Structure formats: C-alpha cells, structure tokens
Amino acid sequence: MRWESSTRPAPLLTATPVRTLVDEQTCIKASFLPSNHPVTVCARMRSDEGDLWQSFAHYNTNSSGMFNLNSDHSVGGSYSGCEPMGLFWSMQPAPGEREGLRLRKKCVESPYTVQISLLEGHVSPNQDPGKEVAAVTAERWYMSPGVKRQEIRQNGLVGTLFIPPGPGPFPAMLDMWGMGGGLPEYRSSLFASRGYASFCLAYVGHKDLPGPSNTVNVGDSYFKAAFQFLQEHSQISADRIGIVGLSYGCYLTLHTGTLPGVKPACLIGINGPVGSSRELLHVNVTTKKSDQDQVFWSFDDQGYIIFKQTSLPSNLHPESIVKLEEITCPLMYIVGEDDLSASSIENADLIEKTLRAAGKSHLFTRLSYPGAGHLIEPPYSPMSRASFWVIKPEKLMTLWGGHPAPHAAAQEDAWRKMLAFMELSLRR
Amino acid sequence: MCPFVQQVRMDNSLQRVKLSVHPSRALVDEEFVILVQNVPPGSPMTLHALHCSEDGHRWEACGHYIADSSGSINAADDCSVGGSYLGVEPMGLLWSLKPVPGSKPGLRMRKKDVQTPMVVAISVFNGHHSEAFVDQVSLASWVVERWYMAPGVRRIPVTEQQLTGTLFLPPGPGPFPGLLDLWGGGGQLVEYRSALLASHGIASLALDYLTNEFTTQTGKMVDNQYFETAYRVLQQHPQVLGSRIAMLGLSLGSVFTLKMAVYSPVVKLRCAVCISGSHIQPVSGGPQEMMDLFTRNIEKINFSEQNEVIWRSLLLPVPSDPSMKADVGRLRCPLLLVVGEDDQNWCTQESAADMEQMMARAGNDHLLTILSYPETGHLIEPPYTPHTPSSMYRGAGVDQKMMVLWGGKTPEHSAAQEDSWRKILTFLKKNLYGGSDPQAIHRSHL
C-alpha cells in the first residue's frame, strides 16, 4: 500500500555528519515515515575510474515512524543485523559493471560522494529500482583539511609524503604496499589526517622507477634511503619513525626494519611473508620473477589464482628470511585467517616463535581475524574477495579471501588497534 | 594568503603533544570536540583559533586551560580560565572570534560564497597568551572546515518575474517543505541561512527585496506583491510542497513576514519565525512606506558614548492605532518570536510584549511562542559564528555608512544564537514535517 501523500512532505533522511574521514562513522537516520513500515536504504557511489558501487539494506520503521542505523537491525540486503556502517563496507560493483574490480582511491584530495536513498518497501534495487522517496549525500574523505601532499622524486626515491597541519616535528610512518605496484596513497593520507607524517613508497610497477615494471629493480639502499629521507626531514622526529606494509610490503617492512643503521620505533606487518619467494641475485635485494614461483600457485574451481603457498615459510628463499631476532622495536602483525593470497598464519607463527626464542615476546603483538582475507585496509571500505591483478603477460583473477562481514569487522578493529599501537610507540 | 603556522623545531619535552579537532569538516551549526593530549599534567596551555575571512580580515580567539592529571585538555569538559571566553565552552573558539588588533573598526563576518567552507586553524600554545600569536610557534595545529551547505544541496538562482533570490533545495526527490527567508535593512542577497536550512531538509528561498534587480534599475522599491510572487514561485516549484511553506524574517524582514502572514490573500503560511523584529508598520503599505516611517521618526535616534547609532526608539512608543501595526490577533498559524533583550537597533522586546497582549485578547495566543534572551543583541544569527555588538552599516539606498550599535554581550549572545537556532529548527521541523495540525510548541518542548 503506497503511503505517499500530496499533503505531506517526503520523509527526512539524514547522515550525521555528512562529511567524514573514511575511517569515521556517520549515523544514518530517517524520520517522518509511516510507523511500522518496511523501507530500503540504498547507497551508491562511483570509483575514481567511474565504476558504480552500491549496497542496500531492509529496515522497518518503529512506532514513531523512524529508524536509525546505529541501533536498528537490517533484515535483508547487502548485510544483516545491526551494522551502523554496513552500507559502506558492503558495497559491491553494480550489475553490469566491469568484472574483477577492487575499490582503491586514486585521488586522495577529493572525496567519495555517496548517494544514500530511501526506497519504499523491501526491494532489491537491482531488480526493481522502486521509488526513491528521500535522499542524502555523504562525502567520505581520505584527507583532513590542512594535510599537505608532496610528490617526492629525489635521490631516486619515488613516493608521496603527507604532512599533517601544524609546525611539527611529527612522528612518521614509511608505508608500503604489495607487488601490485603503483603508489596507493590512501593509507598514508589517513595517517597524516591522524597526526602522523606518512611516506608511501613505490618500489615496483611505477613509471618513475628504473627498469622493467614487472620486477623489483631497487634494493636495500633504496629502502634505507627512504627511511633516511624521513629521518632527515625537518618536520619529522628522527627517532619516531615506524614502518608499515601489507603483503610483500610486509616483508619489506621487516627487511628494512632490520637493515644496519635503520632504527624504526615500531613495525606493522599485515598479511605478508618474513622472506621473499624469489631468488636472491645480489647482496642488494634485487628480485626477478622466476618460473619457480608458479609451482606454488593453485587455482580454485573458478580458475581464480591462489598465491598462498608461495609465502609458506618453507617455500621462502632461506637467505631472504628476515633476522627477526634482531628486531629491537615493537612489532605488530595482523593476520586475516581467510587470507588466500599469503600464508599469514604460518608467517605469524614463525615470527612469534623466533621472537619468543630470542626473549623478545614482549615486543610482539598479534592480531588475528577469522573470516578476514588478505586485503586488510582502512575501515568501512568495501572488500573484494577476488579481483583482477596484473601479472604479465595476462591479467588474472586473484583470490584474496575474506567474507564481507567479518572482514569489515577486522578492518575496523585492526585500524583502531594500529593507531593505538602507533600512538604508544611513536608518541611515548 | 594568511600564514597559519610557522615551521620551527622545538624542544623534546613537548614533542608528543597531540591536538585533534573532530569532526574536521562540519556544518556551521554542528559542534566539534577539541582534544589536546600528552602535555605535562597541570601545565598552562592556550587554545587558539585563527580565521581569514573572505574579505581578507584576520579573526582570532583564545582560551586558557590547565592540563589535567592525565596531561589532557578537552574543551567540551574543561574550563577556560582566560582569553576571549571563560568557562566550559566547547565552541568558544568560534563564537568568540574577534578581529585581530589593528583591524579596521566595525567589521562583521558574513559568508558570501556558501559553496566554499569557512576555514579555521586551531592551535595549542604553551603557556597562557592573549596576544602576539603570530610571533610564537604553536605546539600543534589543526585545520577545520565549517560549511553552510551540505553536499547534495542545490543552489538555484531565482530571477523569474523580476525576483532576485536564491533557492536552496535539499538533495533528493522531495517534495520538501518551503521557506521564504528575509533579512533586514542592509539589503543584499544573503544566502547562508537558507543554505543551512536546506541542509536540514527545508527548501529555502533567500530573497533580496531592497537591493534587488528591479530596485537597482528603477530606483523604486518593490511593493507587497513582490513577496507574494516569491511565495508563489516557491509554492509552484515541483519539488516544494505548496501546503507547507513558512516564512522567516530577521529585523526588517520580520515586518514583511508578519504583513504577509496576517494580511496576504495569497500567502498561506504553515508557520512563521520573526527574529529581532516588530509588528509595528503601516498596515496598508509596503517597503517604501516602511522606509518613510523610519525617515519621519529619524529624530528618535540616540547615540552611545562611542558615537554608535542606536535606532531602537525609532518605532516607539508602540502605537495603539491599529493601522500602524500588524493585527497579529488575526494570525492562524504558529508564530515564533526571538527577542534579544539588549537589542539596541529595534524595539523587539516591547513589540513582542504588545503582540502577546494582542493575541491574548484575540484568543489566538496558543499559536505564540516567545524566546527571550538577556544580554542578547539584534543580530541573532546561526550559532558558533561571531557576535557583532556594533559594526559599520549602510542601509539599503543610503549613501553613508555609520557605526551602528546592535547590542548584546558576547557570551550571552552566543548562547542565545545556539539555543534559538536549535529551537527554530525544532519549531520548523515540527510544523513543516510533522503532524496534520500545525502547532505552537511550548518552550519546554523546543
């Protein structure tokens, strides 16, 4: 039964606040609706590449004609239960969009604009768009006002430095991602928005780096130079610099953190190995793709590639394994227990065992999340269980693992704990 | 371009200091939380705000705090013991902003471009300081944006039928309740209150009725039909619900709000809000006749000790002649009056008292709500924006600028802005969105 009336205004749908950082919550509420009535809330946004991502959830208004995502339960849709931020983390590419997508913000200086709509009844926006009765627009930002973004191309370094507002000097993070390459800036811009200078460093697959783009052509001196760049920066406290890395970036975090002369104040590794699977060529770690690796690849029944075995400690090149016993600063390691791209549990076990043997257990913090996959990213972002990942000569669908609800919970919890860990290690 | 902070190394013991302001992007009427951490417990600290206005003036404010035993300062819980505001005032750094020493006298902060935010740098300094901030290095600094417009709100210039206005539509299909938004004798097209109302779900038309296109070109003032035309434009807009339109007027704007509400056969208001206004007016006239009334009474101007113009006696005494005041006894819609008891520009208090009497006699005072604020002046604006006790002012159509006294003491006036805005929004939402019967809302329910 349609309850729309020409004598009443449309219901009021609000998101408070309407402009937030990506790691902040917003409260979505509606009022002036009929009481005890079914409604659908739908969220839509476009990635920087123009792909449409969306989510929806079914709610029932209470006897006062209101609902509130902070306290009410979704009874269907992209997520269920009480999930204040469910509309954001449960987004998936809309039907008809390109395959194998993963949501990653390229331009951190502009926000994601999320259109949140209220539809009559319990509908599935994909099948029956229904009638939009109210809407609100929310902006999700990766950068606080006043944060400065600087492209760094000096001393051979390729990266982007984010400096918080204010005089400094600031604690800082060296931020590295995986073998997908390029220069994802969004975690660094968020760190800067929390008061930490952050330098995201490219090391593979970037046009400004030397050599072919599908191999790592930089070695120890490059990573050491990156750390020194931060130490020598006039707005950074030289003795309050940490390193963080996801996937292969985790290996680089541990490796760089134990290079002679590099004294980080903390290390954070996410779902990555303690060594490299590829063969070592020189003293400087310059790695080349080797067919040897492919022995460890496996495929699921859809033909998606599972990289997990390549980073089993026993499959790692022994000489590349980081001397974890030499670590002198706190180390946090984050495990997605459904990681299908890296053997995170096994690597975490090895770190734990090594540090215990060295009498350094007090330095180690392990976070472990059931149902979470490989790509543990800043919170409230949609996850991709699989996506296209470039491995020359062809693109392959790569299985990352994880399931939406537990992965979202892991991202939220891990981020909060990472920031607390950084607070303790870098501001003590 | 204003330099916000200087970049110099400082000593180690204070390197851990952390300042956060949350949210860093907010609407102008939203609160934020300022938190300082990791300072030596018990140490004196100064919170400072600096803003460069659109017209290039610097405004600043400061609060003096003592860090607690955990080395923190939270402006929402802790007491400022000095500076430009005192006491527990989470938003004190914004509402107590004043032009920096050496600024031109008589400044007033008004945002012209509502599509960009007001940017404020918030800093924490070691020790208690009240001046010369530009010569010092802060311990930490943050930047916040204050917006009059939510994302998705559409700004639509309105020029049809010789109107000069801007319509702000909330995001979504509508239909939305509508509001006609009138400012005072200074004229111009002032958009920020309408932008903010649209950010709260009300389609709001800011209307220039003194310095509009027609008047500028012909030299003649518009007549009462101008307001009826604006009302019709709003009523007929496909995304506005014609049966739920309100009017909000400040100062001179309240005169025409009441005139339309009481007398117009065209304008059917769901409710009306009058801020710092009066019902005193030539009933059968329009803007020109109102200006003539002011001119006739010009000798009733007074001056303060600082030679600021006090206009509050211009319309006094409250006339008993019914042709000289809007007959509010005939109102059929709820009316909210906002009164500053230290209003030096209009006789708002006397007018409100007279309106109350008229409505009591007529038996429709159940429609009336009066919010009356001690030590509050004339310019009662959206909250957390600076209080202007006096400023250089030029009336529409007048060549000369003069220093006008608006009244009010900053802390009380700022509290009144915060309280009245919240109550105005509640009143508007209840009448425009809620129920089938519009109603005055008892003060305690606002």
Alpha carbon gyration radius of chain A: 23 Å
Based on secondary structure, the structural category of chain A is alpha/beta
Number of strands of chain A: 21
Oligomeric status of the shown chains? heterodimer
List the helices and strands of chain A in order.
EEEEEEHEEEEEEHEHEHEEEEHEEEH
Largest sheet: number of strands, sense, barrel closure of chain B = 8 strands, mixed
Overall tally of structural domains of chain B: 2
Across the major sheet of chain B, the strand order is 10-11-13-12-14-15-18-19
Explain the overall architecture.
The complex is a heterodimer of chains A (428) and B (446). Chain A is an alpha/beta fold. Chain A contains 6 helices and 21 strands. In chain A, the strands form 5 sheets. In chain A, strands 10-11-13-12-14-15-18-19 form an 8-stranded mixed sheet, sandwiched between helices. In chain A, strands 2-9-8-4-5-7 form a 6-stranded mixed sheet. The termini of chain A are far apart. With 446 residues, chain B is of the alpha/beta class. The longest helix of chain B is centred in the C-terminal third of the chain and has 23 residues, at 410-432. In chain B, the strands form 5 sheets. Chain B has an 8-stranded mixed sheet, sandwiched between helices. At the A-B interface, strand 1, strand 2, strand 8 and strand 9 of A face strand 1, strand 2, strand 8, strand 9 and strand 14 of B.
Keywords:
heterodimer; A: about 425 residues; alpha/beta; 8-stranded mixed beta sheet; 6-stranded mixed beta sheet; globular; B: about 450 residues; Immunoglobulin-like; Rossmann fold; 21 strands; disordered N terminus
Q: What does the secondary structure layout of this molecule look like, with pairings?
A:
The complex is a heterodimer of chains A (428) and B (446).
Chain A: E1 12-16, E2 19-21, E3 27-31, E4 38-46, E5 52-60, E6 67-68, H1 86-89, E7 92-93, E8 112-120, E9 132-141, E10 148-152, E11 159-163, E12 170-176, H2 186-192, E13 197-201, H3 220-231, E14 236-246, H4 248-257, E15 266-270, E16 298-299, E17 305-306, E18 331-336, H5 344-357, E19 364-369, E20 386-391, E21 394-399, H6 404-426
Parallel strand pairs in A: 2-9, 12-13, 12-14, 14-15, 15-18, 18-19
Antiparallel strand pairs in A: 1-3, 3-6, 4-5, 4-8, 5-7, 8-9, 10-11, 11-13, 16-17, 20-21
Chain B: E1 18-22, E2 25-27, E3 33-37, E4 44-52, E5 58-66, E6 73-74, H1 92-95, E7 98-99, E8 118-126, E9 140-147, E10 154-158, E11 165-169, E12 176-182, H2 192-198, E13 203-207, H3 213-218, H4 225-236, E14 240-250, H5 252-263, E15 271-275, H6 287-296, E16 302-303, E17 309-310, E18 335-340, H7 348-362, E19 368-373, E20 390-393, E21 402-405, H8 410-432
Parallel strand pairs in B: 2-9, 12-13, 12-14, 14-15, 15-18, 18-19
Antiparallel strand pairs in B: 1-3, 3-6, 4-5, 4-8, 5-7, 8-9, 10-11, 11-13, 16-17, 20-21
